[in-house]
Each structure stands twice: as structure tokens, then as C-alpha cells.
Amino acid sequence: MSRYRGPRLRVVRRLGELPGLTSKTPKKQNPPGQHGSSPKKLSQYGIRLQEKQKLRFHYGLSECQLIRYVRHARRLKGSTGEVLLQLLEMRLDNVVFRLGLAPTIPSARQLIMHGHIIVNDKKETISSSQVKPKDKISFLEKKNSKAFVAQVLDFESGKEVPSFLNWDKEKKTGTVNTIVDRDSIGIKLNELLIVEFYSRKV
């Protein structure tokens, strides 16, 4: 399974800020482990591995899933790195998270799998499904889902919705405006290093 069950702040301390994994901030800033206070200089392979791990943990993917996305991105037109990021950003679980309906991508995935999210007036339970421009996203008016989303919306009220999405506060409906551009990606990383990491593997 792609779900990571270990300590999330430990991953954040090693890889840097990962808003999709957790909204918490670690008290310690040095890397985890016995030798965290004096980190070793990373090799070229280590740098590329670290960028790949950022992508994996942020979007909550297994290694097999990420390899499939890289292969798919290579078959499409455009820069492989940017296309890869677009495919991941347009996943339903990420869009639900970016709209502010869930505090993290794992919690957004749980909302979807439990049948609380509606896409174009139809219940959607596949978190990896790709959304398209003009798709409308809302949540069921059930007591438990309504209460949870309302609580998250209050907590995330100061969070800025990216430009490729739109959130209607009155109707409580999100709309996908367009395909995400590179400037609106929700994580800071170098996608070219990730493509180079997989160049000999796929």
C-alpha cells in the first residue's frame, strides 16, 4: 500500500517542508538520527534520491505508482518533469487538499474513499482519478462529512487557493479553471533531478 504510517515529522526534518504530508512543524530543525547534527554531504545520486522522495511523500505515492506516472509523462508531449507534476497535481485527492477541504493529502484521500466527495454531481471514490478543466467539486451534505469539512474550512480560512482552482464560499463548490502551471505547484523541488533519477530505471 502507498500509505505511509511512520512518523511524519521525522520525514519533514529529513526532506524539508511537505504540506501534503502534514501541516505540523517540527520543533527540531536538524535531520533525524544519531548523526543528524552534523549531516554528511550528499552525493549526486543522494541529491536526486532526496528530490524523488519529496515527491513520493508529499503526494503519498508508492514507488511503483510513481514509476507508472513517470512512464506516462514520458509518452505525453512537453517537458517530462512538468508533465509529471501536472499529472500529480490534477489528481482528485490533491485538488481536494488544495481547495482546503482537507488538512493533508492523506485525509483528502480518506474523504474520497469514504464517499464524501462529489465530482460533477456524481460521487467519486477513486482518489487517483484525474480532474479536468471545468470540473466541479463539492462534498455530500451528510452530517459527519459536513461537520468535518466545515471544521477544516474554518481552520484553513487563511489558506490561499491556487490560481488553477476556484472556491465558491457561498455554494461551497470548487471549480477547476485550467491545467495547473509550474508556478502553482504546491511543493518546492527540482523535477529535472527526478527525471534524471529515473532515466536508467524506466
TrEMBL record:
Which SUPFAM superfamilies does this entry report, sorted A to Z?
Alpha-L RNA-binding motif
Molecular function via GO: rRNA binding; structural constituent of ribosome
Which InterPro entries does the entry mention? Ribosomal_uS4 (IPR022801), Ribosomal_uS4_bac-type (IPR005709), Ribosomal_uS4_CS (IPR018079), Ribosomal_uS4_N (IPR001912), S4_RNA-bd (IPR002942), S4_RNA-bd_sf (IPR036986)
Which GO biological process annotations does it have?
Answer: ribosomal small subunit biogenesis; translation
List the record's Gene Ontology CC terms alphabetically. chloroplast; small ribosomal subunit
Question: In what residue span(s) does the RNA-binding S4 domain sit?
Answer: 90-154
Domain Small ribosomal subunit protein uS4 N-terminal: from-to ranges:
3-89
Q: Biased composition, Polar residues: where in the chain?
A: 31-41
Keywords of the record, alphabetical order, are: Chloroplast, Plastid, Ribonucleoprotein, Ribosomal protein, RNA-binding, rRNA-binding
> CDD domains, alphabetically?
S4
Principal localization reads: plastid
Pfam families referenced in this protein's UniProt entry, alphabetically: Ribosomal_S4, S4
The similarity comment for this entry is: Belongs to the universal ribosomal protein uS4 family.
Assembly, per entry: Part of the 30S ribosomal subunit. Contacts protein S5. The interaction surface between S4 and S5 is involved in control of translational fidelity.
PANTHER family per UniProt? 30S 40S RIBOSOMAL PROTEIN, SMALL RIBOSOMAL SUBUNIT PROTEIN US4M
UniProt-recorded name of the protein: Small ribosomal subunit protein uS4c
